[in-house]
Amino acid sequence: MAKFNIVWTKVDEAPQLASYSLLPIMRAFTKDANIGIEVRDISLAGRILAQFSDILPEDKRVPDDLAYLKELVWKPEANIMKLPNISASVPQLKEAIAELQKQGYPLPDYPENPQTEEEKQIKERYDRCVGSVVNPILRQGNSDRRLAKSVKEYARKHPHKLRDVSPHSKSHVAHMKTGDFYEHEKSVIIEKDTKIKYIFEDENGNQTVLKEVEVGKGDVVDGTYMDRSKLRKYFEEVINTAKEEDILFSLHVKATMMRVSDPVIFGDAIRVYYAKLFERHADTLEKLGWKPEFGMQELENRLEQLPEEEREAIKKTIEEIYQERPRMYMVDSDKGITNLHMPNDVIIDASVPAVIKNGLKGWGPSGEVDDVVLSIPDRSYATMYKEIVEDIKARGQFDPTKIGTVQNVGLMAMGAEEYGSHDKTFFPPADGKMKVVDEEGNVLIEHCVNEGDIWRSCITKDLAIRDWVKLAVNRAKESGLPIVFWLDEYRAHDRNLIEIVKEELPKYDLEGVDYYIKAPQDAMKFTLARFRNGEDTISVTGNILRDYLTDLFPIIEVGTSARSLSIVPLIAGGGLFETGAGGSAPRHVEQFKKEGHLRWDSLGEFLAFVEALRHAYKQIKAIYQEENPRLLILAETLDQAVGKYLENDKTPKRKVGELDTRGSHFYLALYWAEALASQDKDKELAEKFAKVYADLKENEEKILEEIKAAEGKPVDIDWYHPDDEQATKAMRPSETFNRIIDTLLEG
């Protein structure tokens, strides 16, 4: 029988620590099905080392696994378990570089302001590691994301806590009314294969070609910009409103994945909120080389370079600002971490649901809970958040025991609508025009812009759009649920998508398919009415809304998006299986390092692996014309084990001494072995795992005690690039459990 490989991605933080414990179990249980599990490193540290492998000593070189996966996703045999990885900000990048340097890797420092050609090349290499660089490469298919039935049922039986909402809540969403990306968007459908140029033209007619890109017939090309002067005026208005109403000021953007545009928006919020700092200390700040895009934490770090008198003067000004400005929404009030501390702390898809869970309240600087203005500058998506916030104020908090579920089909294949379009975001060096021109000289898109405005473009491939519509129709037929295309006819890009959707839908048998096309605000209103009534809906959205909604609704429904099932049917026939969200991962690592207790819930990995096994069965049948029924047995029994894992509440708990990630992995193995022993489709597997189950059950108490004995003390482990041997020892502390699993692996 053909050997078949499933790729397990090596990532960062808590999901990676958990993998040191979970991966040996997955390998041991699938060994007899002729399945191999190979690890490919897409972590931030792995990406950095791959970029500089040519300058590293031979014993420290690593392969470029992301480049390998870039080719694999276009092959029918691709079967990839994609765990949450860091979409790094520049401060995180610098931390990772420092850690690797400390470990003996001779990497150059990150040049923030490169002067020489060598420094520019170094910066260019490092910049390939920042932001959402992994997802556009791996996601060569559209997204099918939903909660598994067992997860939803568990949430209804064991509902998580959502704080009640005051009928007098002053919390609200504030967005720009003019000057934003939404207002300025222009979009074209390409009529034939061509090459387009992005050109800046100054007021004297001098032109600079910024980028050239090949596009195909049917591709949708957009261009838009944000007026920075209006953005800063908007921030001033929102800050003044927060002060007048005595509520918290907060900013919600995505400065990690939208790594070119959103850090600048984040920086402008700092420029406005801390305006007095720039008025009084502009020369000193320039001397420090600090940029607001890096956040206030970076400024605090650099203040140590100053003489005490200058340092204290800046600190005094900051304290004055806090007295004069509205109170700041806090990421961690105990540690004094504000909403503007670090750009990687500002992640809208996690931060807005957190406010909703907390009864439309945020945390203030003294640890107080209070109403908050949610500042979301661009209207493209702010309006749908506005709708849900106002719905909650009018109708009260959601009840997890009664609400329906909202699934998602997301347009993301081939870099569709990619976040801020990193390589096609430009800041005009002077007043002038930004143009998109085809190879015949036709101007497709043109904007008059001011120096420093944020101009960006994205390209959505025709093949990706049509595959998205196909996936939406298939999901509607499979589920019997209505599908809602979240598309706004008043937005240029969406208008073109509506045209293609209306052209594409009649190609399918739509009998029994209930579909709607609604602008995001109206789509949210329609969906929430069904949601509150216990009815289920499939949202069919573009890439960014996919990201936002697949955090928003699962967090409301089950408390976390990490428990979502995320399937990406790759266009070439392979499968990508994503395992939830990593937004809480840093906090879990902090606790593990401090207390030796890890509470990362690997449920997303469990669920994704079920689907990876099922898809592997189909792939082997299609590619090799062979049957491997053991894969279906393994998938079915793992699914049963997950159900029992939830039913018996064996998810990791918060406190030292309670069940942690390692203990939860033991219970998954116990229940999986039990299910395999009980099945009657494969006698050999049943006999083998009957012994494994008996051994695990007999040693249950001993194994849990051995794991518990490893807790309650600090774990000295590196953050971005842990030593494999050290991490394995920390995550596999039970010799008894290790013996059982390793015997399976070796047998």
Detail the topology: elements first, then pairings.
Blueprint: E1 4-10, H1 13-30, E2 35-41, H2 44-51, H3 65-72, E3 79-82, H4 90-102, H5 117-127, H6 135-138, E4 143-147, H7 149-157, E5 172-174, H8 181-184, E6 186-189, E7 194-202, E8 207-215, E9 220-226, H9 228-245, E10 248-251, H10 262-273, H11 275-288, H12 296-303, H13 308-324, E11 330-332, E12 337-338, H14 348-357, E13 361-363, E14 369-375, H15 379-395, E15 406-410, E16 425-426, E17 432-438, E18 443-449, E19 454-460, H16 462-479, E20 483-486, H17 492-504, E21 515-518, H18 520-532, E22 537-541, H19 543-558, E23 564-569, E24 575-578, H20 585-595, H21 603-624, H22 629-647, H23 661-678, H24 683-698, H25 700-708, H26 724-731, H27 735-746
Parallel strand pairs: 1-2, 1-3, 3-24, 5-14, 10-14, 15-22, 20-21, 20-22
Antiparallel strand pairs: 4-15, 4-23, 6-9, 7-8, 7-17, 9-19, 11-12, 13-14, 16-19, 17-18, 23-24
Describe this structure in words.
By secondary structure, the protein is an alpha/beta fold. Helices cover 46% and strands 17% of the residues. It is built from 27 helices and 24 strands. The protein has a 10-stranded mixed sheet, with helices on both faces. Strands 5, 10, 13 and 14 form a 4-stranded mixed sheet that branches. A hairpin with a 5-residue loop joins β13 and β14. α1 packs across α20 (585-595), α1 (13-30) runs parallel beside α23 and α23 (661-678) packs across α24. It starts with a strand and ends with a helix.
